[in-house]
Design brief:
The chain is an alpha/beta fold. Helix content is 47%, strand content 11%.
Length: 386
Amino acid sequence: MFEYIDTNIKLENFLQTIQTAKWVILDTEFIREKTYYPRLCLIQLATDQQLACIDPLTITNLEPFFQFLRQTDRVKVLHAAWQDLEIFYYLSGGQTLSPIFDSQIAAAVLGLGDQLGYARLVEDLLGVQLDKSQSRTDWARRPLNKAQLAYAIDDVRYLRDLYPILQEKLASTGRATWVSKPFKQLSEADQYQPAPRSSWERVKMVQLLKPRQLSILRELAAWRESLAIEKDLPRRWLVSDEILIDMARMKPNNLSEFKTIRGLSDEQIARYGAQWLELIALGYNLPTDSWPQLPRRRKLDNQLSLVADLLMVIVNQQALQHNISPQMLATRQQVEKMLTDGRSSLSDDWRGSLVNNTFEALLSGRSCVRIHDQQITIENSANAAI
């Protein structure tokens, strides 16, 4: 059984009953099809004793709930936490939560699967198959029926059981410290703050543009992002990625030239055309040294490509040894970037801790790779295993 909390007084009373909870399981249901910001429709919450669905569409004051979440002596447990935390960040006036435990990240470092979905994790660890029949629910419609609420509450009911299992596995495998940095990053405000000036990087087909065209795109994309935030509308409702790319390529000089761009309506041109012309001119005339740059992947020469091959052997060896996916540890692209940047270490988190010393020893010539009895070993110059 669970409580359905749909008034301010019910919420305040419920929060009083769980004030001593040292951890709380959270999930949300939201919609975002017609807005820039996600619209929160339901909050699911569990402690070791209570289960509740909180209705933010009928409760007029959620501040007591956010005050409860902001208490730093209470762990907030979520699965694939980013979107839920983004919602709480916006609704609580730009305040983050800590500490966080993300069961998806925990599952990944335990070798249970990369980006593992909640239903699969529940099935793998608890042997329970979740009902998926309500996954297309319109969570903004009221009233919610029993099947919809049962579906929603299962998202925290079983996570409550998973949490201690994942904690124990992290402790027994010595990987509790591996999750510290990614969990801490989920409590950093810059994870959730809009960044209009860098929104050009997420425009589809951006890699097709030349540097000056990128300068124009940056201005146009920043305008679109800022207006989407102001009006709380999806970006694509204002102008699509494809049209932004065409504008940056074609560089219209007058309103009439916009009419040659496929997909632009007369209404859009009348409303925004003058602004677009100003932005195009601004981006076009910026000095060369201020143009944005796409991340450059320097092509490895044949010898350095072989070095990358060797380092990927180490990545795969460590992944196999620790029963995690090689992609979770490092991709070929990350290893190549490390080499082209002139670095000998991968990162300063748990991933780096598994390979950095070996990478540095190999790249400095202090060690070498040997094969003995069909096993790969790393040995120093005196042939002693390191």
